[in-house]
Amino acid sequence: MLDTTALNQQRNFFDGHADIWLFGYGSLIWKADFAYLERRPAYIQGWERRFWQGSHDHRGTLESPGRVATLIRAKDSICHGMAYRITPEVLAPLDIREKNGYLREKVLLTFLAENGEAAKQSEGLIYLASEDNPAFLGEAPLTEIAQQIANAHGPSGPNKEYLLNLATALRELGATDAHIFDLELQLSRI
Ligand code: SIN
């Protein structure tokens, strides 16, 4: 299986910074099992969430991979998520958690104020699984993606838990995401 841990340790976009903003758009929204100094709802522009990344280590197995979130470029779209201000040593365990194809990338985050309006911006990190990584599964009909999610289980638990927790977390953020909510509906029909 692929392991991007060593690659990510070379991707030090914020070298020398005492703290770093990390933007989570998938499980990092609802499973913050790392230390952070503060967290704030935020979005990134030019990206859309998709369940197009294979999971062989968390929500599936080598024989029966699950599907988890990654991002694709979409010029006029925004993707809502959660930004965490972390200290640099928190990246090492995150690199391990995200090792199956995700690479650190630098992005511009826009924080949301209490009233939901865009407030200030900052550069931050995402973990991105791009289409050239070996675990990338890509597009498929939503019914097929939902079926695969319904069937897959891995060391971190059932794949459907990942999707349902993400949909719930997005609703709590007041965010809409057609791909995620359509998949949730398809899953409920299985
Ligand atoms: C993220 O949540 O930002 C990355 C993908 C994942 O860990 O689910």
TrEMBL record:
Is this entry keyworded DNA-binding? no
Q: What organism is the protein native to?
A: Vreelandella sulfidaeris
Name the domain of life this protein comes from.
Answer: Bacteria
EC annotation from Swiss-Prot or TrEMBL? 4.3.2.7
**Name of the protein in question:** glutathione-specific gamma-glutamylcyclotransferase
Name of one Pfam family that matches: ChaC
**InterPro entries for this protein:** ChaC, GGCT-like, GGCT-like_sf
Q: Which UniProt keywords apply?
A: Lyase, Transferase
Report one GO cellular component. Answer: cytoplasm
